[in-house]
Specification:
Elements: H1 6-22, H2 40-54, H3 61-76, H4 82-96, H5 104-113, H6 117-130, H7 151-158, H8 163-169, H9 173-188, H10 193-207, H11 211-217, H12 219-237, H13 246-258, H14 264-286
Helix pairs in contact: 1-2, 1-4, 1-14, 2-3, 3-4, 3-6, 4-5, 4-14, 7-8, 9-10, 9-14, 10-12, 10-14, 11-12
């Protein structure tokens, strides 16, 4: 399997980000409803801003992260996609650099093992610039400090409290075991791209408490939100036509936004799953 071209990687990143915004994701910003002082256009502009940057050849993973966050702020002036960038940068690097090993996850595993202290420093700078809500502080390897460990080791220190960090130390276990199968299963039912994105989002939001909700609202609220999503996912799985689920999705969306609840990590994992499915298919074509 050959490496993918920067143009193919940029197109995949752009498409995955745009598709996620077009999907009706309760509690999260979409074309169906804005929220949390942002609207869909902010996310479309952010997708355009990062696509050509995160796919540049010759960058380190840390540089992909930092330059993408800088490009986002130049475009929209706020944090719309830090989690997306943190997850997509290693994936983009994996498919851009070299042609071995052949499989997407094996390539990703190789990238994770090669992360450096420099990658951590660039990622920390990106996180400080984005300044995500509810970030808090840590006794070790706090993002306010200069890192002394690799980005993988820094993510390992945060993995118990953050689902994005845990992807780094598990070689994207949730993406490969939950997200990509959810996309494939919805597509096999004949659901269109936007509905496959919704199915993926619901899979994540119903499987575990969302990290973003946990940080902002605490474990009890996060578990209650997870249970609400589980009920909606059960309803959707019983639908032959997903369009019939629109009222229940809109109702949950309205209620969550009125409560100030945004399952942002589930949305970030959804974008990553959509991109990973496309990268996997493109790599297969090069074999």
């Amino acid at each position: 399997m050959a490496a993918l071209s920067p143009e193919a990687v940029a197109a995949t990143v752009r498409e995955a980000c745009r598709l996620e915004v077009q999907a009706l994701k309760p509690g999260n910003v979409s074309v169906h409803a804005g929220g949390h002082r942002m609207d869909a256009e902010d996310f479309f502009r952010s997708a355009e801003a990062i696509a050509g940057v995160i796919s540049l050849p010759g960058l380190t993973v840390g540089e992909r992260i930092l330059r993408s966050v800088e490009a986002t702020f130049a475009a929209v002036g706020c944090n719309t996609n830090l989690g997306i960038v943190l997850l997509l940068a290693p994936l983009a690097h994996a498919v851009l650099e070299g042609d071995e090993p052949p499989g997407l996850r094996d390539r990703l595993r190789r990238v994770m093992r090669a992360l450096t202290v420099g990658d951590a420093d660039a990622a920390y700078r990106a996180i400080r610039l984005a300044n995500p809500a509810g970030l808090g502080s840590s006794a070790t390897q706090d993002v306010a400090d200069v890192p002394t460990v690799t980005l993988l080791e820094a993510m390992r220190a945060a993995a118990q409290r953050d689902r994005i960090a845990s992807q780094y130390v598990t070689d994207y276990a949730d993406i490969f075991a939950l997200g990509m199968p959810a996309v494939s299963a919805a597509a096999a039912r004949g659901w269109g791209p936007q509905w496959t994105a919704v199915a993926c989002y619901l899979r994540f939001a119903s499987e575990f408490p969302d990290s973003h909700v946990l940080r902002k609202h605490g474990p009890e609220a996060a578990e209650a939100v997870r249970a609400r999503f589980q009920a909606v996912e059960t309803h959707m799985k019983a639908c032959d036509n997903p369009d019939t689920a629109v009222p229940i999705l809109l109702e949950l969306d309205k209620n969550l936004k009125q409560e100030g609840i945004n399952p942002g990590t589930s949305a970030d994992l959804t974008v990553t799953s959509l991109a990973a499915c496309r990268f996997d298919a493109l790599l297969e074509k090069t074999s």
